[in-house]
């Protein structure tokens, strides 16, 4: 071969859209599947992926950062479209705080861009890694849901590539039925490729936080209800092991934004440096802390941990109001990278999260019944998170005027059947109390539960949209097949543990 | 060495995918395995065809029904004269020994990362331990490979993925046939056995094969440059 030809051959190009072959799992690691993963970098490439998937006659799941705990962005019967290649912030208006972003931009990208300009995202989840696409797909909520609604309420308009390949822009004014269906539509109706979202003006990089220790669930709910008017954020951390009169005891975090002038040096606090989470915890490098947590990752260890936390909570209350950075307050769960590995790292190990939503009038009774049943079944969540919610206008929303409790359950290859049976009992309790569930934090519910919680009318509307936009049913996930089948079960069959490693 | 590894793994009952250019030799390998406890699947491929890699990788994982052990053993070492500065020849080594290694190991690493399990083995060389007169680029590709693998090892540790660098001494294989004299040679079979043992153990991240080359390497590495250039090593 002559030199020129050879040199030419060395100029290589990857085929576009890029693709890889990966084991794709839910954040909780308990469920996953191998898939071809497409990584488009433009709306045009997204529609090309649709073409290719269609011509191969397979199905496609939308995926962001994969922070949904269960099977929401997994497809054991087809391909996956990973939107993270589209991650540019296109425009940020410093007068209004409105950000125009490609949909693969993460909450982390967004706050790091907006904070130095004096803005903070209106709604964030407990982790900063979700993409705007995934956050919109699930219509996520924060610890301020009762006050500002879900992320959908902050979104102004979105671009969506429909399965036909057509690119549409939808908003409250322009095709509102699509806007309200696609946000919260868990990736069933099209690929969100751009999101225009409003952020909130802040006058400091810090936020005022106060811990309130409460002796039981009743006290906690009473406090939170009394402060929905004056608190910007309210969240309760529950010790799910406590029984009897102490059932549902825990620590509330009550937080409020600083007013102009409250912070003597906003130019210092409104910097990314000030927001950085510390690199080590009690002297241990952060990256290794999960190994220590792992030692406690059993019922005895967690009972002890929860007890200690409750006592520390009382101390924290005595400290009264203190200042914390926005990132430190909101992304507590990101402090310990890979904390989920404390639940085990090998195939079949992991956790599922199970978040129950109950209407205000039956929440007290429902949550009490749920906590008691967990204890009776010996599946006690190592951490319980209580939030206050409000309804919103999105079609398949989990929002309601009421409360939610999020729980983690440890899953191993051996205990799956048992965990799923427990959640089956809990699901019936929740439905009996008029409650519902949230797909981002779900791995268990079956079609009957879906029908009951959304009601026939809403489901029919959703089906109509699906048939109109995706008549070939190309967009599917393990979740959509599990929770939207025709079956008559409240709870699905647990998926087999992935067999990984020899 | 690659062929020997395939034969041994297959004899132990594993399903093995063998990738190289010469289809006849691959088919012979697969045929030999016919009666054995394991099986060998053959894929004819030139690592320079980078575009093919994602597709072949995907079929391998499908055909084997998963993947937990991977060895990159392809390598070339054309004879290079003492006054030869041949860019063509040199870049051919970079392409196979390094470019191919990266192009194949990246998707494997991504797959093992997401699977949270697996072992990656790369074959470096004693030749990468020092810049010798005789093999400027061959040695450089092997040194670069070792550094690349070290980074992967550190990246993938938290995902419970193991990355092993094997540094063979002198092994009796077609690659070394044109050399006049081999120092402390061992057979490809013996080398393969060692490689499997080391890769399955937890003790070594980097290992000379056979182990006695570790001593040699330490001595060679400790010779100061101004003396090293006077030797004929
Ligand atoms: C530690 C932790 C804490 C959390 N805390 C909260 C919390 O406080 N509040 C809360 O609401 N949630 C919370 N979550 C859940 C998380 O916010 C949601 O699961 C979110 O949807 C994840 O976004 P993602 O980018 O990872 O998307 P994925 O999880 O990959 O996908 C989410 C959904 O969006 C769909 N989707 C992805 N991309 C697109 C696209 N381009 N177009 C259309 N649809 C798409 C997917 O199909 C899927 O249904 C938490 C998760 C973790 C791990
Ligand atoms: N032998 C030694 O003393 C020694 C010492 C130190 C390190 N090593 C290293 O050990 C590894 C194995 O060496 P070896 O001694 O077994 O050499 P070998 O017998 O020559 O085998 C090399 C293998 O690589 C394959 N290969 C070469 N070019 C390729 C390409 N472009 N695409 C796909 N496959 C290709 C060959 O198959 P095809 O030709 O059919 O493609 C062959 O199977 C090499 O990396 C070598 O550098 C060897």
Spatial order of the strands in the main sheet of chain B?
A: 3-4-5-8
Topology, number of strands of chain B: 8
* Structural class based on helices, strands and sheet pairing of chain A: alpha+beta
Helicity of chain B, in percent?
40-55%
Summed over residues and divided by their number, the pLDDT of chain B gives a mean of 95
CATH fold topology of the domain at 67-228 in chain B:
Rossmann fold
Largest sheet of chain A: 8 strands, antiparallel
Low-confidence stretches of chain B: none
Instruction: Give me the CATH architecture of the domain at 216-260 and 296-322 and 347-445 in chain A, please.
Output: 2-Layer Sandwich
- The CATH superfamily of the domain at 67-228 in chain B appears as NAD(P)-binding Rossmann-like Domain
Shape of chain A: globular
Shape category of chain B: globular
Classify the beta-strand content of chain B into a percent band.
15-25%
Largest interface: A-B, 28 and 25 residues
Radius of gyration of chain B using CA atoms only? 18 Å
- In the CATH hierarchy, the third-tier topology of the domain at 216-260 and 296-322 and 347-445 in chain A is known as Alpha-Beta Plaits
Unreliable runs of chain A: none
Give a concise summary.
The complex is a heterodimer of chains A (502) and B (233). Helix content of chain A is 33%, strand content 24%.
Give structural attributes:
heterodimer; A: 502 residues; alpha+beta; Uridine Diphospho-n-acetylenolpyruvylglucosamine Reductase, domain 3; Alpha-Beta Plaits; eight-stranded antiparallel beta sheet; six-stranded antiparallel beta sheet; 18 helices; 20 strands; B: 233 residues; alpha/beta; Rossmann fold; four-stranded parallel beta sheet; two-stranded parallel ribbon; binds flavin-adenine dinucleotide; binds NADP nicotinamide-adenine-dinucleotide phosphate
């Amino acid at each position: 071969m002559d030199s020129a030809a050879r040199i030419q051959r060395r100029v290589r190009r990857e085929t576009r859209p890029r693709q890889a072959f990966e084991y794709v799992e839910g954040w909780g690691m308990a469920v996953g599947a191998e898939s071809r993963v497409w990584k488009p970098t433009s709306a045009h490439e997204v529609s090309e992926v649709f073409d290719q998937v269609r011509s191969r006659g397979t199905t496609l799941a939308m995926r962001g950062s994969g922070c949904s705990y269960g099977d929401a962005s997994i497809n054991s019967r087809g391909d996956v479209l990973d939107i993270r290649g589209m991650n540019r912030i296109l425009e940020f208006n410093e007068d209004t705080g409105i950000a125009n972003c490609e949909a693969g931009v993460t909450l982390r990208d967004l706050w790091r861009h907006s904070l130095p300009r004096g803005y903070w995202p209106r709604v964030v989840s407990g982790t900063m890694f979700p993409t705007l696409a995934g956050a919109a797909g699930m219509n996520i909520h924060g610890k301020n849901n009762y006050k500002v609604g879900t992320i959908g309420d902050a979104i102004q308009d979105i671009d969506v590539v429909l399965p036909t390949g057509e690119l549409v822009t939808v908003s409250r004014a322009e095709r509102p039925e699509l806007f309200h269906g696609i946000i919260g539509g868990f990736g069933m109706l099209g690929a969100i490729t751009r999101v225009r979202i409003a952020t909130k003006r802040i006058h400091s990089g810090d936020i005022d936080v106060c811990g309130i220790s409460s002796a039981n669930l009743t006290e906690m709910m009473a406090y939170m209800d009394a402060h929905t008017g004056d608190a910007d954020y309210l969240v309760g951390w529950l010790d799910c092991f406590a029984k009897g009169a102490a059932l549902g005891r825990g620590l509330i975090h009550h937080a409020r934004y600083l007013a102009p002038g409250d912070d003597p040096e906003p130019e210092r606090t409104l910097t990314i440096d000030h927001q950085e989470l510390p690199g080590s915890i009690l002297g241990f490098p952060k990256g290794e802390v999960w190994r220590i947590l792992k030692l406690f990752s059993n019922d005895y260890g967690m009972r002890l941990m929860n007890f200690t936390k409750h006592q520390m909570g009382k101390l924290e209350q005595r400290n009264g109001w203190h200042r914390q950075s926005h990132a430190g307050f909101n992304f507590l769960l990101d402090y310990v990278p890979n904390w989920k590995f404390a639940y085990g790292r090998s195939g079949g190990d992991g956790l599922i999260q199970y978040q129950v939503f109950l209407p205000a009038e039956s929440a007290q009774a429902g949550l009490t019944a749920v906590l008691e049943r967990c204890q009776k079944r010996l599946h006690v969540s190592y951490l319980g998170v209580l939030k206050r919610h409000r309804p919103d206008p999105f079609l398949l929303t989990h929002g309601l005027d009421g409360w939610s409790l999020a729980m983690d359950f440890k899953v191993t290859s051996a205990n799956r059947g048992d965990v799923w049976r427990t959640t089956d009992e809990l699901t019936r309790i929740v439905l009996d109390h008029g409650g519902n569930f949230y797909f981002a934090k779900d791995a268990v519910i079956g079609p009957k539960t879906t029908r009951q919680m959304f009601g026939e009318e809403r489901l029919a509307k959703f089906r109509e949209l699906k048939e109109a936009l995706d008549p070939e049913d190309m967009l599917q996930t393990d979740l959509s097949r599990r929770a939207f089948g025709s079956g008559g079960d409240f709870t699905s069959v647990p998926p087999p543990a992935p067999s990984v490693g020899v | 060495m690659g062929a020997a590894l395939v034969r041994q793994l297959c004899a132990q009952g594993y399903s093995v995918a063998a990738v190289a250019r010469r289809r006849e030799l691959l088919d012979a390998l697969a045929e030999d395995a016919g009666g054995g406890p394991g099986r060998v699947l053959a894929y004819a491929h030139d690592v320079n065809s980078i575009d093919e890699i994602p597709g072949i990788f995907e079929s391998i994982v499908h055909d084997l029904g998963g993947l937990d052990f991977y060895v990159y053993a392809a390598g070339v070492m054309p004879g290079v004269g003492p006054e030869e500065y041949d860019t063509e020849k040199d870049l051919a080594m970079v392409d196979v020994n390094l470019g191919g290694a990266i192009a194949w190991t990246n998707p494997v690493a991504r797959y093992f990362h997401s699977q949270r399990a697996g072992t990656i083995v790369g074959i470096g060389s004693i030749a990468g331990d020092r810049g010798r007169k005789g093999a400027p680029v061959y040695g450089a590709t092997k040194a670069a490979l070792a550094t690349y693998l070290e980074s992967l090892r550190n990246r993938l540790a938290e995902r419970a993925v193991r990355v092993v660098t094997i540094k063979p001494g002198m092994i009796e294989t077609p690659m070394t046939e044109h050399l006049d004299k081999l120092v402390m040679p061992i057979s490809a079979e013996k080398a393969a056995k060692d490689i499997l043992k080391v890769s399955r153990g937890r003790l070594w991240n980097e290992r000379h094969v056979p182990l006695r080359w570790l001593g040699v390497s330490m001595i060679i590495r400790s010779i100061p440059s101004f003396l090293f250039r006077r030797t004929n090593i």
